Each structure stands twice: as structure tokens, then as C-alpha cells.
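chain below, 332 aa
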Amino acid sequence: MAKTKKRIGKQVEPTQSSNATPTPKLTASSPHTTHLKSIFKNSPAYDLLHYFEKAPDQWAARYILVLSSIILRTAVGLGGHSGYKNPPMYGDFEAQRHWMELTIHLPTSDWYFFDLQYWGLDYPPLTAYHSWILGKLGTLINPDWFSLNTSRGLETSDLRFFMRVSSIVSELACYIPGVLLLANVFGKKFNLSRMDQIIFALIILTQPHLILIDHGHFQYNSVMLGCFVYTIVELVQNHLVMASIWFVCCINFKQMGLYYSVFIFFYILSQLRKFKDLVAVGLAVLVTQLIICFPLPLIGQLLYHKLFIVFSLSIVDYLKIKLPIFGVQLMS
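prediction:
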């Protein structure tokens, strides 16, 4: 009887079939990533967005993030700008407007040599091309905004609106998509949930310094930073050639990008495993630089007479900031 009970007990014991489907592992690309524990738990950003944590609602969180970024920048733009009603030089707002004025009216050979005492163009070529595009678009709306010489110091409300919108559109075209892509790439690499990726992007896009400088003071730093963000995206994916191209674009929009050059240079150098990789990166840098400078005549004169001086001054300014930290003074 005991043996019978034992046999019956064995029959009712559940057995695991060899064909049973294994429990799926969660990955960053899985639709169930919302169940991953958030690294931003109990943070204000998580408290704000956790209502959209369910997968069907996450698309709305992205739209809300972008729209909130636009609203925030627009609100800052309602205030004044650098040099407002402060002649004769006004400020950076006038500098950006003036570069649009001179690039659409003068031949490229004069861009970097026209009236250097009044906001001479001292940024690299991609800034000049960007100014040319915006100047052409603005002229279609109102040619008086950028009439040569006679438009200096113009600060009408419609011009200010156009300039503010151009700054937001430039950021929407380059910086904001780059940040969203960076969050996605980091999410896959470090196994972050989709909600954490959105919060990651939120933290970057609401960084106050860029918002105040670009949309308050008035500049277009977001384009340069967008190129730098794409550089980081490509480096994370080990696409060294594309990273080099993006970084060349970064420093050719604004020389301030040189502040990142030491890190970028040595990181790319450390990732080169074969001589052909070194050649590929070198050719990418050279060809990209030549393409950027091609529309400008007298490339050699421009690079050595103007841009070399601009880049050198940027490095000197950087050293003046950093060297005193180590007790070293730079002679002026």
C-alpha cells in the first residue's frame, strides 16, 4: 500500500518538459522594458513623467518633452536680448543679424574682411553658411531686415520674432533630435527603460545655461552642440569615421568646439586598431574640412590669416581660465 501511494505521488509531481518555452529575458529594446527599475526613481523628473510609464503612453511623453522644450525656450525669448537698445555696437543679437546681412549681400571673398570694426565675421565657415541661409529666408519675408549697412541696429518686433524663431528651429533641426538619439543609444547600451531614456533627454534639454544664452542673450550654440552630441552618439557605437566628420562640423560651426578636441582626439586615437582605420579617419577629417571650405575662395589665406588667429585666441582664452587653477599665470 505504501508503495502504491509512493507511485501515485510520483505521478502527480509536475515535470518540466524539455520543450518548455524559456522565460524571455528583458532587454532595452524589449517592449517590456517599462518593468525595469528606474534609476530616476523618487526624482522630480520621474514624478513628473511616471504617469506615461506604460508602453502605449510613452509616445505622448516624447511629444510632451519636445513641446515643453519649445515652450520653455519661447518663454525665455519673450524677454530682452544682448545689447537691446544699446548703441553703437548693440550686442550678440545684432552680431548675428549683421552676419546674415553681409553674407547675403557680399561675395564670399569679402565675408571675413568686411568692416571688421563692426561685428566682423569671426566664426568658422559653417556659421557663415548658416547665417546666409537664415538671411535669405528672412529677406523673403522682409528685405529691410538685412539691407546692407542701413539695417544696422534694427530691433523691430517682427525682426526679433524671426530671429527668435530661427534659433528655436535651428535647435529643433540639430540639437533636440541629437539628444533624443543619444538617450536611445545610451538606453540600449546600459539597459535603461524607455521612461529613463525620456527622463535622460529631459534633463539635458532643460539645462538652463544653453536656454538662457541661445534664447535670452541670443546665439546659435545649439547647432554646434548638436554636432557634438552626434559625435558622442557615433563614438558610443564605435563609428569613428562618422564621429570624426561630426566633430569637424562642430568646430567649423563655432571654434568653442575646440574645448572638446583633446578628449575627442585621444579617444579616437585609442580606438584605432589598424593602420587603415587611422587612414580612414584622417581622410574623413581632411575631406570634410575641404568640402566645408570649398565655397570660400583663397582657402589658404582664410585658414591661416583668419581662422588660425580665431582658433589661437580661443585656446589662449581657455588657458587663461584653466591655468590659474594650477597656480600658473599666462602672460598677456
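DSSP finds 13 helices and no strands in the chain. Residues 157-190 form the longest helix (34 residues).
thats it, cya
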